[in-house]
């Protein structure tokens, strides 16, 4: 059975209370677009189909995944049919995602499996699709949706910690750069020029002359400097994958920070494994999917090797001991859980424990960052202040002498 490919449309519609609305939406056809607008109390007047390579559909974010799966878990557990549950779910996601949910509902109503409908609609990762597919085989789609909602909630918490780590130093450094630029381009040349007139240019220290020259150059050629900065930002944006890999390699060897990164990746791994295991995905298949969800090269390589040897007939307790990127307590817990036949609870518990550990490590890292940032700000601002303080001290000494 073939499905219509979703396209982007520029549309002109009449509002119910009068007036016109011009916008862009994603839909399978003009008819589907008209139906979508009708639910928004608008009448489609005209459309312009955008080229196929143009995509205006917003990405399916973790927040949307949380809202969708929470709604599905609640409704399906109470016996509401999947098609009707998806119709309700359209109201809890962002408006940009409603056409995607509508396409899923239409595909399920036409006889497609829910996992296939998600894959066709786009925006769902391999972990989510694998969980849905396994849940459809076991008949527990409601439980899978609830587990995925919990997974999304944990991932949002992990992402929030990572964002905090990035935002704090960026804000402090931005303030330092703005203050330093103001001092360098305004205060230093002004006071430095006055001191030069008072003492004579030959009496001004070399460091002060260099600082004044840099400030005057920046002030006189700010358009060129701004263009260079914009160009560098564009280059870094185009090569962001290379930059990210380089930053990641450096971060993984920095004390304290490397532990935070490993804990973050471990938390993501166990969160995904908990969702897959609860949905009945076999351990080897779950390892294959969950390993692709982490970026730490050492941990990923060890887990891939564990999966290969497990498929070849290896014994999990012995294989787990070889994953030395994980703490020894974590490995011992997994070994005990495997012997007890309760890996599901172990994965879930480790996901929570890693989340708590990540929070504690983040607080320690923030405590270590504060004095480092203060020292860095002193170097940035203090060096500029010294460039004008040194000749002022020299002048006051001569006056007193």
Descriptive notes:
- With 401 residues, the protein is mainly alpha-helical.
- It is built from 16 helices and three strands.
- It has helices at residues 30-39, 62-77, 82-89, 98-109, 114-121, 126-138, 141-199, 206-220, 222-238, 240-251, 257-278, 283-291, 297-311, 316-320, 328-340, 343-400; strands at residues 7-15, 20-27, 42-49.
- It has a three-stranded antiparallel β-sheet.
- Helix 5 (114-121) packs antiparallel against helix 6 and helix 12 (283-291) packs antiparallel against helix 13 (297-311).
- It is flat, with a radius of gyration of 29 Å.
- Residues 1-5 have low confidence and may be disordered.
Short description:
The protein has 401 residues and is mainly α. It contains 16 helices and three strands. It has three domains: 7-49; 62-124, no CATH class; 152-401, Up-down Bundle (Receptor-associated Protein), CATH 1.20.81.
CATH superfamily of the largest domain: Type II secretion system (T2SS), domain F
| Proportion of strand residues | 5-15%
Class per helix and strand makeup: mainly alpha
Uncertain residue segments: 1-5
Estimate nothing, just give the exact number of structural domains. 3
Radius of gyration: 29 Å
CATH topology of the largest domain: Receptor-associated Protein
Mean pLDDT: 83
Strand order across the largest sheet: 2-1-3
Reading the helices and strands in chain order gives EEHEHHHHHHHHHHHHHHH
Q: What's the number of helices? A: 16
Please state the second-level CATH architecture of the largest domain: Up-down Bundle
Query: Tell me, what's the shape?
Result: flat
Q: Major sheet, described briefly?
A: 3 strands, antiparallel
The proportion of residues forming helix, as a percent range, comes to over 70%
User: Class of the largest domain, according to the CATH hierarchy?
Assistant: Mainly Alpha
Overall strand count: 3
Amino-to-carboxy terminus distance: 97 Å
């Amino acid at each position: 059975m073939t499905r219509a490919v979703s396209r982007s449309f520029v549309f002109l519609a009449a509002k119910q209370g009068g007036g016109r609305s011009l916008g862009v939406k994603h839909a399978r056809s003009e008819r589907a677009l008209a139906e979508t607008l009708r639910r928004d109390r608008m009448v489609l007047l005209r459309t312009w189909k955008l080229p196929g390579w143009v995509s205006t559909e917003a990405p399916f974010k973790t927040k949307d995944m949380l809202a969708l799966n929470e709604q599905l878990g609640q409704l399906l557990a109470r016996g509401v049919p999947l098609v009707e549950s998806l119709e309700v779910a359209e109201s809890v996601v962002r408006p940009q995602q409603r056409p995607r949910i509508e396409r899923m509902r239409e595909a399920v109503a036409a006889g497609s499996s829910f996992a296939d409908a998600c894959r066709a609609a786009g925006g769902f990762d391999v972990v989510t699709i694998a969980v849905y597919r396994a849940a459809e085989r076991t008949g527990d789609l409601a439980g899978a949706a609830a587990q995925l909602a919990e997974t999304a909630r944990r991932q949002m918490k992990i992402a929030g910690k990572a964002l905090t780590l990035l935002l704090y130093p960026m804000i402090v450094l931005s303030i330092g750069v703005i203050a330093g630029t103001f001092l360098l381009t305004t205060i230093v040349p002004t006071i430095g020029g006055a001191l030069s007139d008072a003492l004579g240019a030959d009496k001004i220290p070399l460091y002060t002359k260099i600082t004044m020259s840099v400030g005057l150059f920046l002030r006189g050629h700010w358009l060129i400097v701004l263009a260079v900065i914009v160009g560098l930002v564009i280059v870094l944006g185009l090569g962001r994958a290379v930059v990210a890999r380089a930053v990641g390699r450096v971060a993984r060897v920095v004390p304290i920070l490397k532990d935070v990164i490993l804990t973050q990746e471990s938390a993501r791994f166990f969160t995904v494994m908990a969702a897959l295991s609860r949905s009945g995905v076999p351990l080897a298949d779950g390892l294959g999917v969950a390993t692709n969800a982490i970026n730490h090269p050492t941990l990923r390589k060890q887990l891939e090797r564990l999966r290969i040897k497990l498929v070849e007939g290896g014994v999990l307790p012995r294989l787990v001991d070889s994953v030395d990127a994980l703490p020894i307590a974590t490995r011992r817990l997994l070994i005990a859980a495997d012997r007890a036949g309760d890996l599901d609870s172990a994965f879930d518990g480790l996901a929570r424990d890693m989340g708590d550990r990540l929070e504690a490590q983040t607080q320690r890292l923030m405590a270590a960052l504060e004095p480092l940032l203060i020292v860095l700000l002193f170097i940035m601002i203090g060096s500029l202040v010294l460039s004008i303080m040194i000749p002022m001290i020299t002048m006051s000494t001569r006056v007193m002498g």
